[in-house]
Design brief:
Layout lengths: L26 H14 L10 E6 L12 E4 L12 E9 L8 E10 L19 E3 L6 E6 H6 L1 E8 L11 E11 L11 E5 L3 E4 L5 E6 L5 E5 L2 E6 L4 E9 L12 E6 L19 E7 L10 H4 L4 E4 L6 E2 L1 E2 L12 E3 L15 E2 L5 E7 L3 E4 L1
Parallel strand pairs: 2-10, 19-20
Antiparallel strand pairs: 1-3, 3-7, 4-6, 4-8, 5-6, 8-9, 8-10, 11-14, 12-13, 13-16, 14-15, 15-23, 16-22, 17-18, 17-23, 20-22, 21-22
Length: about 375
């Protein structure tokens, strides 16, 4: 995800788009911010001695060759009152034999190419040493030393998506603007250079209630619904999520008056899948399904309904049954999904994640490793 072509990040933007914001914590930080601003006016594209990639960390609804990064507005009825997020992944490394003792990186954002942009979230432990947000959180300044540059610095910048005025609010775009200065001397001298670059845009759109897109924070639930039934995804790490819940055209189980499909896509910027329940990401993805009572046949029970859930993997065309989780819970065998069975002693015990609530709605907890579609 760090080997993308640097040319795609070259924007023909002028420095007039950038807010003249600097860190106010010290006079030296202020002076540095002013120096960066002045240098950018005459700099040309290209960062001598450094590789810098700034990549959207949100769903790509286009292709790798022609990406289209998109998220949903927060605060609309379609978003179910959730605060949704945008994110960019930042990577800086000295991959040459040149010695670069210090690099100064400054990042801001804009909406529709106009300042101010969105404030960055202050997430504990998310920024490397030498990086600090301004008091208003609208800009980031990093002073990176030689050892950091040789090893490579990698981090994510997350922002709350803005609220849309209504369901007819037109699309708008978010851009991340960054400058970097390496070494000392004039902007055009090797290995020193100051560059103004514009990362690929993220589009904000008002989506239908059946589908939403967002960067989802670690341990935070992200939900969609359809006709009262609901799908909630809770990832063990921060990831981009494209989630839909639609009425299925497939034949239904005898347990249901109508069948639903929950379609989940969680992909890295390079198009590969996040794999949960592995050495790299030990915890499994948690998917909670709420089946509205009105969608059930009178004969449906939590004990029979949880057994008819089916799953289609991202690279498959045929659905397979979702087996019950082993004690732990843990995936059975080589399966990539499992459903937590209800507590036989008390079907209304919500601690299992599979239970019947006081309104008679059925709740199922499914654990999984990656993308796919659940029929339920």
């Amino acid at each position: 995800m760090h080997q993308s072509d640097k040319d795609q990040f070259a924007g023909g933007s002028s420095f007039s788009r950038v807010v003249g914001r600097t860190l106010r914590s010290s006079a030296s930080a202020l002076a540095l911010g002013m120096a960066l601003a002045a240098s950018c006016l005459s700099a040309k594209a290209g960062t001598n001695g450094l590789t810098v990639n700034v990549t959207p960390l949100v769903p790509n609804i286009g292709t790798l060759a022609a990406p289209n990064y998109a998220v949903s507005y927060s605060g609309t009825p379609a978003a179910l009152g959730q605060t949704l997020h945008s994110a960019y992944h930042v990577f800086v490394k000295n991959e040459t034999n040149s010695t670069v003792n210090t690099a100064w990186l400054k990042v801001t954002s804009s909406i529709n190419d106009l300042p101010p942009g969105l404030p960055f979230l202050e997430i504990a432990g998310s920024l490397p040493n030498g990086c600090q947000l301004s008091m208003d959180k609208l800009s980031l300044l990093c002073v990176l030393d030689a050892s950091q540059l040789v090893a490579g610095v990698s981090f994510d910048l997350v922002m709350d998506n803005p609220n849309a005025a209504s369901n007819t609010t037109p699309d708008s775009t978010l851009n991340l603007l960054w400058t970097i200065q390496a070494g000392q001397g004039n902007a055009g001298a090797n290995p020193s250079n100051v560059v103004l670059q514009e990362a690929p845009a993220i589009t904000f759109s008002v989506n239908a209630p059946a589908g939403l897109r967002s960067y989802v924070l670690k341990g935070q639930g992200f939900k969609v619904n359809n006709g009262g039934s609901e799908t909630t995804v809770t990832p063990p790490i921060g990831v981009p999520v494209d989630l839909k819940e639609t009425v299925s055209s497939h034949s239904c189980s005898p347990m249901y008056k109508k069948c639903l499909q929950s379609s989940l896509s969680i992909k890295k910027p390079d198009g590969s899948l996040y794999e949960f329940g592995t050495a790299a990401i030990p915890d499994l993805l948690q998917i909670d399904l709420l089946r509205d009572k009105s969608t059930l046949k009178p004969s449906a029970t939590i004990y029979s309904a949880y057994l008819v859930l089916r799953y289609t993997a991202d690279d498959a065309t045929t659905s397979v049954p979702i087996l019950a989780c082993n004690a732990g819970p843990a995936l059975p065998g080589a399966e990539t999904r499992c459903v937590v069975p209800p507590n036989p002693a008390l079907a209304t015990d919500s601690s299992t994640g599979t239970f019947v609530d006081p309104a008679g709605h059925l709740h199922f907890r499914v654990l999984g490793k990656s993308n796919g579609v659940i029929d339920w």
